[in-house]
From TrEMBL:
Organism: Brachybacterium rhamnosum
Pfam families xref list: CHAP, PG_binding_1
Name of the protein described by the UniProt record: Peptidoglycan-binding protein
Coiled-coil region(s): none
Record's compositionally biased regions (Low complexity): 214-246
Location of the Peptidase C51 domain: 43-124
InterPro entries according to UniProt: CHAP_dom (IPR007921), Peptidoglycan-bd-like (IPR002477), PGBD-like_sf (IPR036365), PGBDSf (IPR036366)
Signal peptide region: none
All residue ranges annotated as the Peptidoglycan binding-like domain in the record: 175-211, 298-350
Region (Disordered): 212-246
Domain of life of the source: Bacteria
Amino acid sequence: MSSNRDAQIGRVVDVARAEVSKSSAEHPRGSNLTKYGKWYGVNGVAWCAMFVSWVMAQAGLDVGIYGPRTAWVPDYRVWARARGRWSAGKSDVRVGDIVTFRGGKHVELVIRVSGKRFWTVGGNTSWKGRGGSFADGVFVAENERTNDTVDGTLHPFYGVTDSMVRDAQAVVGVKVDGDLGPGTIAAVKAWQKANGLTADGIPGADTWQRMKGAPADTPAAPAKPAATKPAATKPAPAPAAAAKAPAFPLPRRKGAMFFYGPASGGKTSVSGTGLNTAVPADVYRDKNGRWHSRGLAKFQERLIARGWKELERDGADGRYGDTMAKVVKQFQKTVGQPQDGKVGPETWAAAWEAPVK
């Protein structure tokens, strides 16, 4: 697996470095119009995440194993945390990793590491060297980022290929889609444990070779955690789900993070308790004149399905009240997120994908 891993990382570094230039990547300069945005299909907006997605795709390493294909920086943390591939801060930075900065507002690729120092290639940034600015630049630049504020690091599943994942999914009896997500990881772990292998949930070379030679009657791993896990002592959701989260339904605009929250939370807080002209497709008024949020109702349905009984009294009514605020904070605590009561992209995705601690 080492040679395959090294080859994958080498391609990522080569593709990223080839894009570095002191000429503007935006045409016209300052427009946010780039070939990366054109490739992604969303042009004219901040493009650092699209640049990373473009590099991974050009290196032949696309969504499902090596990180999300996305234009939204927080998606990298959501993806990595759901798969156990996230390290907080800069404590564990390696070549080929994807690092987010500024509280999850900027993202770059690591191309070199020397002791505690590391260098990255990033898009939509500036040429300022060590401690360089992240301010909405027009370049693809290489900078030393040692002294910058690092939010966290995503470690792609280098050394694993699409065929390894799909073959493993077929053996353990989960959906064969090439996505090395929480459900597949849990099932592979169970199979590895049953077959005397290190139970890390990664269908790497050793596991893959064993699976290729596995007899037809080798039992598939269960798609849910083993029943021997001690019962939770807190109001706990159901065991970790294997579902993939639907797209976060609220808009993502520069400088305005929309979320589901209390009516007192301002224009970007969608409570479902009143008209919000910023999200006309999400909020609606029923025949009795009461307002509701379609997206919030879907989130409530998911939490109810995962065992949050407190929401069953009112059901998935698409309204954010005191009970909803309490449940959201409890849920965020169980999945290791800040307990702010806001249902943004990260909390939304966790409701479908994250194992509950």
